[in-house]
Design a protein that fits this description.
Elements lengths: L2 E6 L4 H14 L2 E4 L10 H13 L5 E6 L3 H7 L7 E3 L3 H9 L5 E5 L5 H13 L7 H10 L9
Parallel strand pairs: 1-2, 1-3, 3-5, 4-5
Helix pairs in contact: 1-5, 2-3, 4-5
The structure holds D-ribose (RB5).
């Protein structure tokens, strides 16, 4: 069983709540970072909250839900040590753990039904990083530093 940080904005909160309940039923320890209702909020705040829990080791893995799963991933990936992946199918969910060592899964409530989201989340949790040839590639991702745009 894993300790999982979960977060969503107003466009993802209903799916997030369904998935949090499912994770708890399976026996996972979930830290719910909010949001808690349908009032409008800004998704970067929740993507950052989940990512920071993962980055400091307060959670092994993260779950982010917004309308598309894209904005939350963009925000979460700004936090060093976090590798957030937006996935909307079971195969991508499994492979991003196996190959990219993704530690945050991002889903879009406006794009997937609850059943597919649950299956993708279970595939993500059930897979492990393969290491081997993937390890130096992931290390290259982690070593990328923020840089100034190159002038044309
Ligand atoms: C909110 O309307 C929406 O923009 C947000 O949930 C997300 O889809 C952003 O990526």
């Amino acid at each position: 069983m894993a300790r999982i940080a979960a977060g969503a904005d107003h466009a993802g909160v209903q799916l997030k709540d369904v998935l949090v309940a499912h994770l708890r039923k399976l026996g996972h320890d979930v830290v719910d970072c909010g949001t808690d209702g349908l009032g409008r909020v800004d998704y970067p705040d929740y993507g950052e909250a989940v990512a920071r829990k993962v980055a400091v080791g307060e959670a092994e893995l993260g779950l982010c839900v917004c309308g598309t799963g894209i904005g939350m991933a963009m925000a979460a990936n700004k936090v060093p040590g976090v590798r957030a992946a937006t996935v909307h199918d079971v195969t991508s969910a499994r492979l991003t753990r196996r190959h990219n060592d993704a530690n945050v899964i991002c889903l879009g409530e406006r794009l997937v039904g609850a059943e597919l989201a649950r299956d993708a989340l279970e595939a993500f949790l059930g897979a492990t990083f393969e290491g081997g040839r993937h390890a130096p590639r992931v290390a290259k991702i982690d070593s990328l530093l923020p840089s100034e745009p190159i002038a044309q």
